[in-house]
Specification:
Blueprint (H helix, E strand, L loop, with lengths): L1 H14 L3 H14 L4 H13 L3 H14 L4 H13 L3 H14 L5
Helix pairs in contact: 1-2, 1-3, 2-3, 3-4, 4-5, 5-6
């Protein structure tokens, strides 16, 4: 499928440090399949790497509505709020994460 090809292209460009191209491929993948969790996660990571905190938060918060209580997604949201220097929101998300994965070493 062309959505999978677009996501694969995004991964290649992300690994090469070509973030704008990676973003474009992930956006193309999402235009084909808007609920593709992997493309949305990767787009969020790409925005984060580009220091687009708001764009990254939008991706991960949307993903949180799709994959409720996914530890990896909650962790990214907590980190992004920390990057925004929103200590209270960051702490709230980290506390939520602890309730989901209480024994993670």
């Amino acid at each position: 499928s062309s959505g999978i090809n677009a996501e694969y292209g995004g991964n290649i460009h992300f690994k090469a440090g070509e973030l704008e191209k990676a973003r474009d491929y992930y956006q193309e993948s999402l235009s084909i399949e808007s609920g593709c969790a992997e493309a949305l996660y990767n787009l969020g990571l790409t925005y984060k790497a580009m220091s687009n905190i708001e764009g990254a938060l939008e991706c991960f918060e949307k993903l949180h509505t799709i994959l409720n209580n996914c530890p990896e997604v909650i962790y990214q949201i907590a980190i992004l709020y920390d990057m925004k220097q929103d200590v209270q929101q960051s702490m709230d998300w980290f506390m939520h994460l602890i309730t989901i994965v209480p024994t993670d070493p």
